[in-house]
């Protein structure tokens, strides 16, 4: 069994994926963490690496190759914006969240690779820019829109939900 969890920035992908993996005793892989690691190695923020990836295909090629390797495994929960595409046999989940709630969550996380997020208002705006950057990039590189809900088996709005409730819904609805 493989479950892929995609979603808006700040929707709780990694937190929920960790919970689902723990409850089902599966391995958790976060492509967002891989991207943050790459940003850290390059000395740039997550927003900067997203913009860089619009021009430098090597960022996505690295992430894509990792996901193609994961598609050969089993017993995984993968949080990734394009996991549904690279691991088509997975149970595909999308987590939605309002821009305001996403901004609050991201701002309160205070990640080092998100140094532009100096205020809540800046974080909300940066999150919108990041989502748009990803939309442009994925359209150009793959002719895909990861924010098209028709790709998913289950869509959950996490705006007013706690991670435990979201994880429980995924576990109960999976095939």
Polypeptide structure, described:
With 175 residues, this protein is an alpha/beta fold. It has one domain: Rossmann fold (3-Layer(aba) Sandwich), CATH 3.40.50. It contains eight helices and five strands, in the order E-H-E-H-H-H-E-H-E-H-H-E-H. The protein has helices at residues 13-24, 31-42, 46-53, 58-70, 83-86, 99-109, 120-142, 163-173, and strands spanning 2-7, 27-30, 76-79, 91-96, 154-157. Helix 1 (13-24) packs across helix 8, helix 3 (46-53) packs parallel to helix 7 (120-142) and helix 6 packs across helix 7. The longest helix is centred in the last third of the chain and has 23 residues, at 120-142. The mean pLDDT is 90.
Q: What does the overall shape look like?
A: globular
What is the name of the CATH superfamily?
P-loop containing nucleotide triphosphate hydrolases
CATH class: Alpha Beta
Q: Give a quick account of the main beta sheet: strands, pairing sense, barrel closure.
A: 5 strands, parallel
Total beta strand runs: 5
How are strands sequenced across the largest beta sheet?
2-3-1-4-5
Structural class: alpha/beta
Arithmetic mean of pLDDT: 90
Number of helices: 8
Run of helices and strands: EHEHHHEHEHHEH
**What CATH architecture do you see?**
3-Layer(aba) Sandwich
What is Rg?
Answer: 15 Å
**What is the count of structural domains?**
1
Strand content: 5-15%
SSE topology sketch:
Layout: E1 2-7, H1 13-24, E2 27-30, H2 31-42, H3 46-53, H4 58-70, E3 76-79, H5 83-86, E4 91-96, H6 99-109, H7 120-142, E5 154-157, H8 163-173
């Amino acid at each position: 069994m493989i479950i892929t969890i995609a979603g808006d920035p700040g929707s709780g992908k990694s937190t929920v994926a960790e919970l689902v993996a723990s409850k089902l005793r599966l391995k958790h892989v976060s492509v967002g963490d891989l991207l943050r690691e790459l940003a850290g190695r390059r000395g740039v923020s997550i927003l900067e690496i997203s913009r860089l990836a619009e021009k430098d295909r090597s960022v996505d090629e690295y992430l894509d190759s990792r996901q193609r390797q994961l598609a050969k495994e089993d017993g995984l929960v993968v949080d990734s914006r394009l996991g549904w595409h690279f691991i088509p046999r997975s149970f595909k989940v999308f987590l939605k969240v309002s821009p305001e709630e996403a901004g609050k969550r991201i701002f309160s996380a205070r990640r080092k690779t998100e140094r532009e997020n100096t205020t809540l208002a800046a974080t909300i705006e940066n999150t919108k820019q990041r989502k748009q950057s990803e939309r442009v990039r994925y359209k150009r590189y793959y002719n895909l829109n990861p924010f098209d809900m028709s790709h998913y088996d289950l869509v959950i709005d996490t705006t007013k939900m706690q991670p435990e409730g979201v994880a429980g819904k995924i576990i109960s609805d999976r095939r």
